[in-house]
Amino acid sequence: MEGAYNRVLSARQSVPHDTYVYFMDLLAKTVRDEIAGCSEKAYEYLSIADAKQILMFSSVKELSDYIAEEHPKWKITNGCVFFQEAKDSAPCKEIPSLQLINQTLSYAKELERIV
C-alpha cells in the first residue's frame, strides 16, 4: 500500500458496483489516517492548501471537519495546520548506545570462543 495512496483514492470513482462504495470509503479513511500519521511525524506544520492536497480533500471544510473529528490536537492557525502539539505528546527515549556496543562485542567474543 505504501506510495499507492493516490491510486487507492481514485479507484473509488470506478467501482464495478455501487455496493463497493462503502468499502472504498473505509479504505479511503484508512489511507487518509496513514497519510495523516506520516505527515504528523514528518512536518511541524503544513499550509492548509498543502494539507488539503496531501490528504486529498476537495475543500477546506472537509479538511477542517476531518481534523476536528480525527486529530483534535492539531491546530489550524494563520492558514496552517500545526502538528507540533501532537509531536510533543510522545516523549523520546535515549538509546544507551555504548552499552549496546559493549554487549554486542562481548557476544561476538563469546561466539568466537565457541566456534
From TrEMBL:
Pfam families: CSN8_PSD8_EIF3K. One of its GO terms (biological process) is proteasome-mediated ubiquitin-dependent protein catabolic process. It comes from the Eukaryota. Residues 1-90 form the CSN8/PSMD8/EIF3K domain. Keywords: Proteasome. InterPro entries: 26S_Psome_Rpn12 (IPR006746), CSN8_PSD8_EIF3K (IPR033464). One of its GO terms (cellular component) is proteasome regulatory particle, lid subcomplex. This is 26S proteasome non-ATPase regulatory subunit RPN12A. It comes from Acorus calamus.
